[in-house]
């Protein structure tokens, strides 16, 4: 039998904060997520535990998408590292087309 998850052993309030922080930083590196957990919640959790929980969160969050959110657009600013996630009912093909048109204009 395996060990209990590092996240499941946290107090419920601290666990909720840690998971919210991971969701907010999910597109950053595991080391960046670990640093954010240490800085904001003083939680030193192993890289493997962070990776396992991130995989579970991603799978769980995909199942929770509502009908009007069938397209998810993730915009990452490669200079600042800022990530913006947009959930929309607009088809992915239309979003791609709009981006390509905007590139052609600029």
UniProtKB/TrEMBL annotation:
Q: Which domain of life is it from?
A: Bacteria
> What name is this protein filed under?
Uncharacterized protein
To which species is this protein native? Answer: Acidovorax carolinensis
